[in-house]
Every structure is written in C-alpha cells, then in structure tokens.
Amino acid sequence: MYKLITTKIMELEELRDALKIASAREYALIEELLVCVDKKSLIKQIRQTEKNDTPARVEYYGNPKAVTRVLVKLIEQGKLRYNGEDNYSRIIRTLTAVVDVVNESTGKIMSGESLVSYVKWIRSGELPEE
User: Fold this and answer.
1) Cα radius of gyration rounded to whole Å, the chain
2) Per-residue pLDDT tens digits for 24-72
3) Among residues 92, 84, 85, which one has the least CA distance to residue 67?
4) In whole angstroms, how far apart are CA 44 and each of 33, 47, 51?
5) Shortest CA distance to 116 belongs to which of 57, 80, 74, 72?
6) Three-class SS of residue 48?
7) What CA–CA distance (Å, rounded) separates 69 from 100?
8) Which helix (H) or strand (E) holds 101?
9) What is the pLDDT of residue 36?
10) How crowded is residue 28: how many other Cβ atoms within 10 Å of its Cβ?
C-alpha cells in the first residue's frame, strides 16, 4: 500500500512539473504573438468593437408630462404591463433604460425618477391637464 501511494505521489509530481513547463511555453508563445501584433490596429479593433457593442437609444422629443400621461393611460387600460402586472414605476424605469425622454423646451433628458414622480402626481390628480 505504501509503495502504491509513493508511486502515485511521484506521478503527481511529474505531472505538476510537466504542467509548469507547458504553462511556461504557452506564456512565451503568447508574449511572442503580442510582439508580432500591430498595436495600433489592435486598439482600433477594440474601439470598433466597443462602438458596435454600445446599445442603441431611442429618443422621444416632446413634453415629458404628455408622454407620461399616455403611459399611465395605457397601464390603466391594461395595454401596458410588466410581467403581467401594472407596476407603474417598474414599467417607467424599464422604458427609460431604452428610451430617452427629452424635454423639448429644455433639451434635457428626463430621469426615470422624474417620470415616476409625474406618474404619482397624475394618478393622485395633482398634475393638472395642459
């Protein structure tokens, strides 16, 4: 039994040494490859990839209160849902992750929290019709 354990330990040590040698060779090959690569073209490729990975944004230009009223109406009618529920704040936050609501008079993008506040005011009757 002792001889078998000793043999297995020796085999493991040989495998470990072989793995170290292989890792050193792979590292050397990677370094050699990096030296051969044109760094400017590599940076250009990375920037192009980042540009393509940027998610598209949809922009709505107009009155943010008006678009919020439309959304509230759709939610109240059951035509706009979030996982089957009329979760107003979740719907607004999800939409603002994709759609920028740009206030036409100021040119600024409205935050999701501002639109959620409008929803609360509309639902409580505190936001007068325009």
Assistant:
1) 30
2) 777 777 777 666 666 666 667 767 766 666 666 789 999 999 999 999 9
3) 92
4) 18, 5, 11
5) 72
6) helix
7) 16
8) strand 99-103
9) 65
10) 10
